[in-house]
Amino acid sequence: MSQPAKELYPLAGKSDKLEKSIIGIGDIGIGSGEPTVIADFCAIESREKFFTAAVSLKEAGAEVLRYELQLSPYSSQGLEDLSLEMLAEVKEETGLLIATEVMDIRQVESIAEYVDILQIGSQNMQNYPLLREVGNYNLPVILKRGMSATIREWLLAAEYILDAGNQDVILCEQGIKCFQQYTENLLDISAVPIIRQLSHLPVIIDPSQAAGRSDLIIPLAKAGLAAGVDGVMVEVHFETDETFCTRDQSLTLSQFEDLVEVIGANRNVLS
Fold first, then answer.
1. Per-position b or e across 219-256, b if 16+ CB within 10 A of its CB
2. Contact criterion met (CB below 8 Å) for 112 and 118
3. Which InterPro entries did the record assign (predicted)?
């Protein structure tokens, strides 16, 4: 790469004036040197269980709750009436910040009214109309790397959001396609220090999506912490939840508590 990062990515690239962005949301600062803990739900059976699970995650150390939208029309969709108002109620009751994926420009306005963070999934990383739309809102955006995207393409996608006016972009590495058969995707740990060299934007990882198996989540999270991530997003399920839409790549509450303990022991890894 012959051109300096600032020329390739005029808004996402580092500059003399902007070495590292810290995105303040509520009481947390993503990029501040203390890795943020994001718990991810894919489905839940009832309102009562949803609230109970959210309280348990908060007590276990979660700071952000992300509700998972399903990609398959045949997989469990959770509560049909799981409204945005309910997510807002969970935030009010628990103090958890709420993140939700947006998949269409027509969703953004209604969702943005209720959540703290918008997410662009990997399949929409180069959906430029959607990137520009979320760039029009004053909400942080988690931008997941496409499964076949280069780091250059990923940063250029972030430019669309930044150019539209939204400066609060969080990059999320969730794995790229590979040829081996032991994990769902390949978590590109090298992307973390590369992003930290090229860009001022915070970078987090999603080892659940990358591994596709729960036994690798904590080891991959440890690797990410050693590489300097600004946060870890993991899927969690509860034994009382019979939907188990992605159980194979989800932690139990006890395992999630173990992960939070690992992250707590590495709170100063970025400082």
1. ebbbbbbebebbbbbbbbbbeebebebbeebbbebebb
2. yes
3. Aldolase_TIM, Class-I_DAHP_synthase, DAHP1/KDSA, DAHP_syn_2
Closest CA to 186 of 229, 149, 240, 159: 149
For residue 87, what is the domain's CATH number? 3.20.20.70
Residue 173 lies in a domain: yes
Structure tokens at 146: 């496409």
Instruction: Encode the chain (271 residues) as per-residue pLDDT tens digits.
Output: 557 667 899 999 998 889 999 999 999 999 999 999 999 986 666 788 889 999 999 999 999 999 865 545 555 444 444 578 888 899 999 999 999 999 999 989 999 999 999 999 999 999 999 999 999 999 999 999 999 999 999 999 999 999 999 999 999 999 999 888 899 999 999 999 999 999 999 999 999 999 999 999 999 999 999 999 999 999 998 765 555 456 688 999 999 999 999 998 876 544 4
Number of domains in the chain: 1
Q: Which string of DSSP letters, residue by residue, matches 96-156? A: -EEEEE--SHHHHHHHHTT-SEEEE-GGGTT-HHHHHHHTTSSS-EEEEPPTT--HHHHHH
What single string gives the DSSP state of each residue in 217-258? HHHHHHHHHHHT-SEEEEEE--TT-S--TTGGGEE-HHHHHH
- Domain span including residue 157: 30-70+77-265
115 within domain boundaries? yes
Residue 139 falls inside a structural domain: yes
